[in-house]
């Protein structure tokens, strides 16, 4: 009955039907479906649906989905989270792409005791000083994907680096993670700029400064629409040959690398997933995702896929309500497309390897050539004092 009403209102989609007449688990998908990260939100949702189709029948219950658009705006996202929690009374939420949005909804999620499976946002504080037994991250932390590149680039002989990133939590934390290990290895950051987030169209003035800085290389974080503009402008400025471009791998995500085109060739970045990883779980994922969408999955798709897989695992373990789902989610571990995944119980952040990859021309367009696999390391606790689930 409840499902019928929700469906009539266009608010919920049922993705699996339980065998018994038990109520489905109600899931709030909190993602950007508009704004600079809209394509990322759509890919996460597609990965989420593929996993529910593939594994949902093992859950022992069904899932009703209510989706809300954060618009990549923290105040909007907070209002949508409130609606999902108080009005829709969801049992669990999944999603959040921007670190700024995660920072904004953290207290609401923690205070209401609603489990949130983070399916992108890397905000270090969410699994550090602001950690919560209700927040489990199935994606990455900003420090985790950038720290390994400091030593790796130093080992390649690079000594002086100029950094660039958007001016919000993710940009600052990603660059901080890289700069910390690069300078500890003996390298020097010769200049840094943080560009206005969602407002910078012309990167020219920043590129001119990078060029004049005497750097051996540039290291950046940009994602979504900003990544496409940045990579194209970097190339058309003629910088690529003399000042090689490095960064966190979102810069050249398979989701939009074709929009970047030849400008992305030769860019070297690091990430926790590329679709070219050679393992059985990834082969099954790539095939299922391609069959559904007609394109290769990105890191965003795998976050959605693994978030839904984690939810199924929690349901399989018998979890149904907010507290039991929160408890079960932090204990999941499985072999996924990224390899063996587990959750660090000290922080609730995922533990996974990081891959250095170069974007190269392949037979069917641009592809990701893995240059190195850097071992999985749990993040430092970063001030996290994990409380128990309390309701
Ligand atoms: C973030 O804001 O945490 C974020 C956004 C987009 C990415 C990665 C991280 O591709």
TrEMBL record:
InterPro entries: BCAA_transport, Leu-bd, Peripla_BP_I
Family recorded in the similarity comment: Belongs to the leucine-binding protein family.
Keyword Transferase: no
Domain of life: Bacteria
Signal peptide residues on this chain, from the entry's feature table: 1-19
Domain Leucine-binding protein, first and last residues per copy: 25-360
PANTHER family xrefs: LEUCINE-SPECIFIC-BINDING PROTEIN, PERIPLASMIC BINDING PROTEIN OF ABC TRANSPORTER FOR NATURAL AMINO ACIDS
Keyword Nucleotide-binding listed: no
Keyword annotations: Amino-acid transport, Signal, Transport
Protein name as catalogued: ABC transporter substrate-binding protein
Coiled-coil region: none
